[in-house]
Amino acid sequence: MAGIGLILLSSLTGCEWDAWALGLQGKASRASLPPCIDDDCNCGDFRDQASAQQVLDAFSKDPYELDRDANGQACEGLPDSAPSLDPTIEPSQSVHLSLGNPSNASVNNLNNFLIERRQYALSYHRERGIPNWVSWRLNADWLGDVERQDDFRWDEDLPEGFHQVEPEDYAGSGYDRGHLVPSGDRTADVEDNSATFLMTNIIPQTPENNRGPWRDLEDYARDLLEQPNQELSIIAGAYGDRGQIGGGNVTVPSRLWKVIVVLDQASVDGMGNINTTTQVIAVDMPNRRILKQDWRSYQTSIDRIELATGYDLLASLPAQVQTVIEAKESNH
Ligand code: MN
Ligand code: MN
User: Do 187 and 266 fall within a single domain?
Assistant: First the structure.
C-alpha cells in the first residue's frame, strides 16, 4: 500500500501537492482556479465575491481563511461580481499592442485609460493611481548603454481631472517605486529610458519582490535576446488590493503578473510567426515581503491570469492558437 501511495505522490508537482494536501475536492482542478491558490489567497486578491466563493468551495477546508465567520460565504466585503470587460475598440497601430489590448483600454474609461507612447502602451486606473497593465516589445534595438535616469515624475499625458501621483507619494511607505517596463529594457537612448520613470509605469512593490524574483525574471528575459533573431512581446500588470499609500491616492496591488511571448523577429508580418508551439512564460506572484526567491516557482498559465484579472490576453491571435498556448503551464 505504501508503494502505491509513493507512486501517486511522485507524479504530482510541488504545487499540485500543496493543493492536494489542502483538500482540493470534487470537480475543482488547480488549472481552473486563480494563481493565488498556489501560495496564499487573501480576500484582496479577488475581483469579486463570486471568484472568492469559487476558491472557498473548491477546498474541503478553508485553507486560506476566506470565510472567517464560517457562514459559508467567502469575502463578503467584495462586490458581488466584477464589471464586464469594456467594449472592443479599434485595433491600435502601436507595435506594443500588436498581440492585443487585454482590457479594451481606451480614453473612454478613466479607470482603464489607454496611454500609448513610442516606448510602450499602458492602461491606467485613475482611482487606484497605478497602471492596470503595461505592454511592450523588446529586442536588441531597445538596448544600449544609456545610464539609468532615475527621473521619477508625474505623467503629463494624463488628462486634467486625474490626481497626479508624485514620486513622493511613495516616500516612507516601505514600498519601492517598482517599474512595470524595467529601466533596463529601455537603454538605447536617454528619452526612452526616462519614459520608464513616469509614475504611470510605476507600482508600489515590496523591496523583496522588486529586487528578488521580479528582477531575476527581467534579467532572464533580456538574456533570451542573446539568441539570434529573437524578440519578446511582454505584458505585465498588477491587480488586487492590500491597502493604500500616498494619503489614500495609491493602491498597493496584492498580485503582480507577467506574460512573455517569444517571437521570431524575422517574421514578415511583425507578429512573430506565433503558433501553438510558441514559447510563453507566465508568472503571477504575491506582492509580499516573504516570498519564494525563484521566479520559476510562480509560473502559471495565461488562462489562470485571465481568470484572476478578467482580461483577454493575446486577444489578437487566432482563437485556436490562444486556446492552446494559454492553457499551457509555463515551464522554464
Ligand atoms: Mn523593478
Ligand atoms: Mn486570451
Answer: yes
**Chain segment 34-61, per-residue pLDDT in tens:** 999 999 999 999 999 999 999 999 999 8
Classify burial at 100, counting beta carbons within 10 Å of its beta carbon; exposed 0-12, middle 13-18, buried 19 or more. Answer: buried
Full domain range(s) for residue 3: 1-82
Nearest to 293 by CA among 238, 214, 239: 214
Please state the separation of Cα 36 from the chain's center in Å.
12
Same-domain pairing of 74 and 130: no
How far does the centroid of ligand 2 lie from the alpha carbon of residue 274, in Å?
14
Our measurement of the distance from residue 270's CA atom to the centroid of its chain's CA atoms, rounded to an integer in Å, reads 24
Q: For the domain that residue 233 is a member of, what is the CATH number?
A: 3.40.570.10
C-alpha cell at 95: 507595435
Catalytic residue among 96, 125, 163, 179: 179
| 125 in active site | no
| pLDDT per position as a tens digit, 217-257 | 999 999 999 988 899 999 999 999 999 999 999 999 999 99
Nearest ligand to the C-alpha atom of residue 179: 1
Nearest bound ligand to the CA of residue 216: 1
Q: Is the pTM of this model over 0.85?
A: yes
User: How does DSSP classify residue 266?
Assistant: T
